[in-house]
Amino acid sequence: MNTEWNSTTKHIVGVGLFIFGVYLLYLSRSVLTLVIIAALIAFLLMPAVDLLHHRYKIPRIVAVLLTYIITSIIVALAPLILFPQIIRGFNFLARVDYTVVFDNSLQWFNDTLISLKGVDFHLGEITVNFDRIVDPLLDYLQDAERTVDFSMPSAQTIINSLNSAVTLTYGVAANLVGTVFSAFLAFIVVIISAIYFSLDAHRFKGQFLGIIPEKYRFEAAILLDRLKKIWQSYFRGRLILMIIVGVGTWAGTALLGVPGAFALGVIAGALELIPNLGPFIGTIPGVLVALIQGSTTLDVNNVVFALIVTAFYFSLQQFENAVIIPRVIGDAVDLHPIVILVGVIVGANVAGVIGALVAAPVIASGREIIRYLYYKVLGEDPFPPQLQEAEADEQSLYKRTRLAVVKLQSLLTQPPPPSDPADQPSPPSSSEDG
Questions:
Q1: Per residue in 85-113, pLDDT tens?
Q2: Distances, alpha carbon 333 to alpha carbons 10, 242, 362, in Å
Q3: pLDDT of residue 329
Q4: Residue 123 falls in which region: left (phi positive, over 0), alpha (psi -120 to 50) or beta
Q5: Which of 12, 213, 312, 326 is deepest in the core (most CB within 10 A)?
Q6: CA-CA distances (angstroms) from residue 17 to 11, 53, 211?
Q7: 425 contacts: CB under 8 Å, gap ≥ 6
Q8: Do 141 and 112 touch, CB atoms closer than 8 A?
Q9: What's this model's pTM, rounded to 2 decimal places?
Q10: Residue 86 — φ and ψ, nearest 5°?
Q11: Better pLDDT: 367 or 332
């Protein structure tokens, strides 16, 4: 008796299962973000878990627990180590006399504008007189100097503000308790989910391929490997970029004499998590500090020093884009900067910080999937043999470095070759006298 469904029934059931899956995602949308965060944590910690499990033969559950315990300790100790340094680096901002800074800036701008009065700029037959531009700006500066006031508010103003704040205390406290409890519950859900992901990560690929028809499993396995390479290359590259840019910014700003160089390095390194937009945002604190405080080593005015610091950040970003990124990330996330920038903005609007962080690998993964579907629609091979051979021959910087280290270790630990016995001096023969 033939129990196979006809094509119409298969299509109806397939469409029904798809709609049911979308409906399940809609119902779980409130916790979907937490599940994605847990999956990202498990993915980032997977190399450490695999190292402990495969290389040191530690049971997987013990390897997972050790990895999460060590990571938790590092995360807990990092603020204790970094925050005091950052606070000390930015303590000078609390001691800055902003009234003097504002007055000095106005005076410098005013003197510069006065020096331009009466100057004529000739461009061919066209003559531009700067007085028409300088005079309105001078009037505006005089108005700004009269209206801007950095003085402390009066005691009565402070008391009125405190009275208004007290009336809001009860509602804020109630909301705070609920927020803290929700955040703690979300944290527990993320950690438990991440641990389960780490325990069963090695089974996911086989389970996924098991539901794929057999004739498509080979292509599906290649597609999964390519997607895995995108995400691994991206996050490993971002981690290396954070370290290189953070240390480079710290060393460069310290040599230039920017106060709080360590804090600026930490900020620049952390913002490397956000591609394209992060390095630009990381430039702003350094330039502001240079403009306000000046240099402790260079004898230049603050405006010139701010331009020097801006040039340093720009040069570091160009070196990062031209040298570091191609070597640590490669072409796994080969996207145009405009595409990444738009993706970061859209991801931030859709999923907040997480959306901004994963925008680039999500777009690259989508490009890879669309490319696969495009070639399948055209009836062509999406993974031709020459493409697979080229990818097999490619070795990332991480693999080349690891291979070099292994070779160096083998050379250092290899015992010296035995020498030829004929070259060894013969021991002296002992003869009895007499």
A1: 667 665 655 565 566 666 767 777 777 77
A2: 37, 17, 10
A3: 75
A4: beta
A5: 312
A6: 10, 37, 14
A7: none
A8: no
A9: 0.69
A10: -65, -40
A11: 367
pLDDT, mean of residues 139-150: 62
**Distant-in-sequence contacts of 276-282, Cβ < 8 A, 24+ apart:** 276/337, 276/340, 276/341, 276/344, 277/341, 277/344, 277/345, 277/356, 279/245, 279/313, 279/317, 279/320, 282/245, 282/249, 282/313
Q: 309 is written with which tokens?
A: 């610091």
Q: How far apart are CA 57 and CA 76, in angstroms?
A: 28
What are the tokens at 256? Answer: 């230039």
The tens digit of pLDDT for each residue in 271-311 reads 998 888 889 999 998 998 888 888 889 888 888 899 999 99
